[in-house]
Amino acid sequence: MSQRLPAEELTGIPGGTLITKTPEEGRQLAMLIARHTIHQIQPNPDALKAGRPEYAVDPDSLTAAAQVVAIEFQTIAAANNYWR
Amino acid sequence: MSQRLPAEELTGIPGGTLITKTPEEGRQLAMLIARHTIHQIQPNPDALKAGRPEYAVDPDSLTAAAQVVAIEFQTIAAANNYWR
Amino acid sequence: MSQRLPAEELTGIPGGTLITKTPEEGRQLAMLIARHTIHQIQPNPDALKAGRPEYAVDPDSLTAAAQVVAIEFQTIAAANNYWR
Amino acid sequence: MSQRLPAEELTGIPGGTLITKTPEEGRQLAMLIARHTIHQIQPNPDALKAGRPEYAVDPDSLTAAAQVVAIEFQTIAAANNYWR
Amino acid sequence: MSQRLPAEELTGIPGGTLITKTPEEGRQLAMLIARHTIHQIQPNPDALKAGRPEYAVDPDSLTAAAQVVAIEFQTIAAANNYWR
Amino acid sequence: MSQRLPAEELTGIPGGTLITKTPEEGRQLAMLIARHTIHQIQPNPDALKAGRPEYAVDPDSLTAAAQVVAIEFQTIAAANNYWR
User: A74 lies in a domain?
Assistant: First the structure.
């Protein structure tokens, strides 16, 4: 039984860069970065799973998570000059 | 009975670009992106529907959702040089 | 009895532009945009009215609403080069 | 007994400009703008007073209010080129 | 028994400028500005002390306070061209 | 029994600069800055530990913490010209 997420789930910036080819890839990166931050704060997979059932059906929790993704994406989009 | 939202509801950046012709289109894109983020975190349509009745009449939930849209719009507006 | 707000209450960006003559007009636009976002998420006027009595006297709800306006204004002010 | 705050309490941007001589004046403006937004959403002074006793001693309410001021100040400081 | 914090605790921008020599000084300024905002909203030291015991051990309250500092620091860091 | 965190846990900006070689290092700095802010507000290690068990398994607390890291990272990424 794993007591800690694997190392690749704990990288702060997966891929090591904020630069992406497309906005869609940038969005996926924002999602990943947000998730990995949670993993870094709580690297125990059982603790993460314990909270998931309630969180995943609570609209306010989903809205709060979406806000974090929005903020991460803001950074990534600016880094990419908004892919103009 | 669908257990998962269709693929087009899960795209991170519908249309694949942040650039829009008008502020109004940019606003609709902000709304869409915010909604799709929720879909990506919770792709089960039944789970989403379960939370909706309470969420949709709770002013604080609506305010929180509006804030996410405001942040997404900030990114889109800047990407479009604010449509000056 | 109306089941849906009139179309003009549902426009994302009333007036179709972020550019305003004065900061005061920009502020009013920020307020309108925030309100219309709520309308777009919940277009049923009865549902909106139902939540209002509690929301309008709850300081924390008012603070949360003011924060959304602050974020919308940030976008509008930057679009207008801060009306320098 | 007043049922509505006086007009000067309802101006969106008191003074009509974001430009101030000093950071201190900019900070006071941020505070004023945040407060007037609350007034615009809830212009009934009795409703505002009713919520104040609890709000003013609740650290979380004070933190939330301080965050709104921080966001308004961010806009004002950028408008003033950060008073460099 | 003091009924009001001393004047120096109520200044909006202690030192009167956002420009600092180092990032560390900028961070301390962000903390001070956040604290003084709380003081300006609630200048009664007894009211502030009353809320402190619960607030100071509640992780969510600490996180919310840290977020305000993060926003103030964002403004200060930009004002200083990020001390590059 | 320590009553106060050691000095190195209380630095506002560990390393004294926002400039890092890589995005990954920038992300770790964002995490550290967020954590040290909490330490500065509550420097008693026992008080911090007391809140941890509940906080670390509460998804909403983790989301709120991730949001603070996202905001700090936004500042650091901009300071580094987004490591383009």
Answer: yes
* DSSP-derived secondary structure letter, D10: S
CA distance E13 to E24: 16
> Is C41–B66 a contact, with Cβ atoms under 8 angstroms apart?
yes
Say yes or no for a CB contact (<8 Å) between B83 and C79: yes
* B-C Cβ pairs (cutoff 8 Å, strict): 87
Q: Which pLDDT tens digit goes with each residue over A22-80?
A: 999 999 999 999 999 999 999 999 999 988 888 889 999 999 999 999 999 999 999 99
Q: Quick check: pTM over 0.90? A: yes
Total structural domains within chain B: 1
Whether D37 contacts C68, CB under 8 Å: no
Distance CA A50, CA A31 (A): 21
- Which tokens in the block code for residue A16? 């090591």
Closest alpha carbon within chain C to B64:
C64
- List Cα–Cα distances, F28 to B81, D24, F15, in angstroms: 31, 33, 12
pLDDT at residue D2, as a whole number: 65
Residue E73 inside a domain? The answer is yes
Tokens (6 digits) for D12: 């969106």
Q: Is residue B70 less than 8 Å (CB to CB) from chain C?
A: yes
Residue A2: pLDDT band with limits 50, 70, 90: low
CA angle F35, F37, F40 (to 5 degrees): 115
**Nearest Cβ partner of B66 from C51, C52, C68?**
C68
Range of the domain at C38: 21-81
Contact F19/A8 with Cβ under 8 angstroms? no
